[in-house]
Amino acid sequence: xxxxxxxxxxxxxxxxxxxxxxxxxxxxxxxxxxxxxxxxxxxxxxxxxxxxxxxxxxxxxxxxxxxxxxxxxxxxxxxxxxxxxxxxxxxxxxxxxxxxxxxxxxxxxxxxxxxxxxxxxxxxxxxxxxxxxxxxxxxxxxxxxxxxxxxxxxxxxxxxxxxxxxxxxxxxxxxxxxxxxxxxxxxxxxxxxxxxxxxxxxxxxxxxxxxxxxxxxxxxxxxxxxxxxxxxxxxxxxxxxxxxxxxxxxxxxxxxxxxxxxxxxxxxxxxxxxxxxxxxxxxxxxxxxxxxxxxxxxxxxxxxxxxxxxxxxxxxxxxxxxxxxxxxxxxxxxxxxxxxxxxx
Length: 344
Description:
The structure is a single chain. The chain is of the alpha+beta class. It folds into 2 domains: about 1-90 and about 320-330, Uridine Diphospho-n-acetylenolpyruvylglucosamine Reductase, domain 3 (2-Layer Sandwich); about 95-300, Vanillyl-alcohol Oxidase, Chain A, domain 3 (3-Layer(aba) Sandwich), CATH 3.40.462.20. About 30% of the residues lie in helices and about 20% in strands. It is built from 11 helices and 12 strands. Strands 4, 5, 6, 7, 8, 9, 10, 11 and 12 form a 9-stranded antiparallel beta sheet that branches. A 3-stranded antiparallel beta sheet has the order 2-1-3, with helices on one face. Helix 5 (about 110-120) packs across helix 8 (about 215-225). The longest helix is centred in the last third of the chain and has 15 residues, at about 275-290. The radius of gyration is 20 Å and the shape is globular. It starts with a helix and ends in a 16-residue tail after the last helix.
């Protein structure tokens, strides 16, 4: 709905990587996506919100009204009320150059080492998230790649078209890709590219962490778990640098501004019989790689992992969030979430 409303005017705002993601949850948790390096998180582009509080009252939250609530809902999740309206800042983004090159899985260590250095210095017009994946058995992927275990980087370039060849030149020089799926397209086409793969009704088990460095040792651990157990299961590394770094860690509730990536390990499958299989893979993978993380995680990619993990994910912003919770939801009505307890 957001893309439909904005694209007609040649505009866009950061809104994840799948067009069916709900705008409410995406925004309140932070909002990583294709435009993070260029435009920041979704919350960095939130101007104001209308909120129904636990006592039934209706308020506006912005830099001018209920500033403490506005601060809290930018990353604090659904802890403070029901948001009925968002006002976003838009950017002149219409056509992008995007999509994934794919490499055989055995090339992943080389690709990951290159990626960690490249994305740190790449122009902010270029975003790219790294993925371990299984090639789906259908268009637009060629038949000889169907169900192959591979790695890829999903690019999104929003800069001047005449500079695209120069920007992408280093991408063409790394590894031996099995597919180069990068091309010019409307931004909503990139946003919806994975909608057909991740349809409603799938079984999901998530584990996540923020990551500062992708060391050689971490890459070795990644490779031990890179072959996902099902076609839909995956690991993504979403870059957080660029524009997202220019917001202070205490300016919004979203604390990990200095992190380089948000990592998610997602065990996914349509068959409930595979519940333990995808859960065990995600848990074992996370337990192996967590020692190489920054500590906390992106709350939109966490399961029910206990109060300690919630605190770890907000760090020194947690006490301020708890104070806002006491003010706006003292009985903890809104608690089916990554819950912030009202302060005493």
